[in-house]
What does this fold into?
Amino acid sequence: MSTTAAGATSGASAQRPRSRRRIRRALPALAVCVALLGAGACGGGDGKKDGKDTKDDKVAPIAQTRAPDGAPKVSQAVVTILPKDGATEVATDGALKVSASAGKLTQVTVTGSEGGKPVEGTISPDGASWQPAAALRTGTKYAVSATATDAAGLVSALQSSFTTLTPANTNYGVFNIDANETYGVGMIVSLEFTRKVTDKAVVNRSVKVTSEPAVEVEGHWFGNQRLDFRPEKYWKPGTKVTLHLDLDGKQTSPGVYGKQKKDVTFTVGRAQTSVADHTAHTLTITRDGAPLKKLPASLGDAENPSWNGKMTIMSKEPTVHMDSQTVGLAKGVYDIKDVPHGMRLSNTGTYVHGNYWRTDPLPFGKENTSHGCVSLQDVKGGGDPNMNAAWFYKESLIGDVVEVVNSPRKVVDPDNGWSGWAMDWAAWTAAS
It folds into this structure.
């Protein structure tokens, strides 16, 4: 009996300390719950209220803090985010809106899944709304976080996410430059769009060309699919030029979206320009302001004179197949499959190139015998580096300017190749 009684007493004594330990452990947990209730003022909601889904827009959950007497204080600010949480195929422009009632927005952050910078936007002066500064990107998931404060300083917060549309019809600007390349001082940045552009204002805001050192660069539209950029005067040697494309999400025409968002930078090389004189039968090269070399040349004959005006070297091709039919002449006038050292100057077939087939009489420097090109002496196969055509090919860059003077033909059209230098600055900027 004494043993049993002692055991009972011992058991009762052991239970009381355990009970006190439970109370002591419960107190910190209660404190955490109270703290979390107050922290709700800075956190986001789950989009539900009273266990039910909210309506399509997103409404901020009630945020509470504790007064000294323990009574809850509820923020009166209500944050709303459109489109609804989880929405898909959202328009890139005009759909994203964040607003606050019974309070003012204090911070809005929108980030895309592409990992770029947060979307730029502005809170209205009255704190009632926020909108993005530009269209969003297509096919991108965005996360939105917003906070608002009521008159008492209590904070309400909300998070949401949505995904923008993937367009069925897209438009690309195919450009003529490569990143990190070196081009001549006359390089014109040209974009040819894959579809017609009916909203040029949108493209003008979304495509820019800048330079270091900075100069004014203007774009000029040729029709509704081509946009070229150039400064008033040739670029200075060493200039860094950057094409900025921010077309993704922008409608270039109804239902047709741009898809490009990138920068492309190139460097301007030494200053070289050349003048082909139709009367003197020469090609005179100037580099960095000083005469470099004068070469005997053959330009277009009386029936096929060369274009007058400034043209830009568009490509360098070691061998070119030249067929008279491709430039509107009759079949068989010429068909030379291995023209050496070709440098294209126009879309209509004008080249500076080597000529090995006219040796008797020697035309270079004496007469014009070509069909509109500027030809220099060369050998078949172009393998002799001492030939004038080989030398000029080696010393030239894409973007160098070749100007034809004293030809009886009219000045080349500014959209024939990259011949925008044939247009004066006033006319160029009038259609910018």
